[in-house]
Write a structure and sequence with these properties.
Elements: E1 12-13, E2 16-17, E3 29-31, E4 39-40, E5 46-47, E6 53-56, E7 62-64, H1 70-75, H2 89-106, E8 113-117, H3 123-131, E9 136-141, H4 144-152, E10 156-159, E11 172-178, H5 187-195, E12 198-209, E13 225-226, H6 229-238, E14 242-248, E15 256-262, H7 277-301, E16 307-310, H8 314-322, H9 324-328, E17 330-335, E18 348-350, E19 358-362, H10 369-377, E20 381-384
Parallel strand pairs: 8-9, 8-11, 9-10, 11-12, 16-17, 16-19, 17-18, 19-20
Antiparallel strand pairs: 1-2, 3-6, 4-5, 6-7, 7-13, 12-15, 14-15
Helix pairs in contact: 2-3
The protein binds zinc ion.
């Protein structure tokens, strides 16, 4: 595990945590319940810091309670960062779904050149290549392992952070970025960096986790910001981009949102999600309190003997970080395809029926736990699911 530098913490005066203003809109922020230490990065690595976030009561966005330092943020994407490097068919499916959604948002204005910033191992570019034969497609990726994996697929890759890219000799019709902006130290600078890679009448498409309702995305340490529609609209305005389309992505692709910005000014759409920032904050507080209780809840269901766990991906990694006592009872991970298993500190093997009725921890996405429970209970397991209040 790489050394993670400590963050400069928020000032603590007379026991009251005073928070700096929202970096996105200057609004006041309230602290959210703390998780850990430890916490978790989005590729499953354990982070020694606690998770301390806050809500903005003006734009509704979530953010780290303490101000973040760019070098600390960038340190997460060193040689060991490998989210999405496993040959996971679901990553390809998601890349394909994002590609279709972005092209659908563009309507008939099909791009001839695309730059994908934070392209990972290239699933989105691969999908776009099928839709745009003969197009000029280039990826940008800062994490060395992922850049190498994308290059091996025959894609043209620049290994860089967005903010370090030089001005392009040939700008792109479309610059897209999927699930990157929430990781950045300065979302406005990041968005500006995307914009300057696009042609004067080009587009910038950004996909990122929804922040208007709490979900798993809130509990990752390397998600520095949870951006609301209102914040994205404002960020665009700050860097000369007009938000022309906005939509949540289909539920089956997760809790994400797609923003299409234009460099030409042709009328911003009005906010379509008008959730009150105070209620967003209250919902996040309730959600994180449920996370604080998860370990005790699971321990109350475990009979004190080692047991298997169904799932070996993101949710198993979350359980390892935030329900460490329950995790200590996990003997092995059961999955339908062990090739998709994350490198957690347990072995993964193909799911099979038990020899005798036995308990089984469920560690798949909370919204699918009941469905998996129904399946394994037909096989003589007693499924231990998370509370329904963690359903997203
Ligand atoms: Zn704000």
């Amino acid at each position: 595990m790489p050394e993670i530098l400590p963050l400069k913490d928020a000032k603590d005066r007379a026991g009251v945590r005073s928070l700096t203003a929202c970096a996105l809109c200057g609004g006041p922020r309230h602290a959210l319940p703390t998780l850990g230490p430890p916490s978790i990065l989005s590729d499953g690595r354990i982070d020694s810091r606690p998770l301390r976030k806050a809500s903005c009561l003006s734009c509704g966005s979530s953010s780290h309670a303490a101000s973040t330092v760019q070098q600390v943020v960038r340190a997460s994407y060193d040689r060991s960062y490998d989210l999405g490097i496993a040959q996971d068919p679901s990553a390809e499916t998601r890349g394909s779904a994002y590609g279709s959604a972005i092209l659908a948002a563009l309507g008939s204005d099909m791009p001839k050149s695309v730059l994908d910033v934070g392209c990972g191992s290239g699933s989105l570019l691969n999908s776009l290549a099928r839709h745009l034969p003969g197009g000029r497609l280039v990826g940008v990726e800062a994490a060395t392992q992922l850049a190498a994996a994308a290059s091996r697929r025959g894609l043209t890759i620049i290994e860089s952070f967005a903010e370090d890219l030089p001005l392009p000799s040939k700008p792109f019709d479309l610059v897209c970025s999927v699930n990157v902006i929430e990781h950045t130290h300065d979302p406005a600078k990041f968005l500006w960096s995307l914009s300057r890679q696009a042609t004067e009448d080009g587009y910038v498409a950004v996909v990122c986790p929804r922040a208007d309702r709490p979900n798993l995305e809130l509990v990752f340490q390397d998600h520095i910001f949870g951006l609301t529609h209102q914040a994205l609209l404002r960020l665009g305005q700050d860097v000369g981009l007009t938000l022309i389309r906005y939509s949540p992505t289909p539920e089956e692709d997760g809790d994400f949102q797609l923003c299409l910005f234009s460099r030409k000014s042709n009328g911003a759409i009005q906010p379509s999600l008008t959730v009150d920032p105070s209620s967003m904050h209250r919902n996040r507080v309730a959600y994180l309190r449920e996370w604080q209780k998860l370990d005790n809840f699971l321990m109350s269901q475990i009979d004190g003997n080692p047991l298997p766990c169904f799932g070996a991906g993101e949710v198993a990694a979350l359980m390892r970080a935030y329900a460490p006592r329950a995790w200590s009872y996990v003997a092995e991970l059961l999955v339908d395809d062990p090739a998709t298993a994350w490198r957690l500190d347990r072995s993964a093997r193909v799911y099979k029926r038990p020899d005798a009725p036995s308990p089984l921890l469920i560690a798949v996405h909370p919204s699918r736990q009941r469905m998996v429970a129904n399946r394994v209970e037909g096989d003589d397991y007693r499924a231990i699911c998370w509370p329904d209040t963690l359903g997203r």
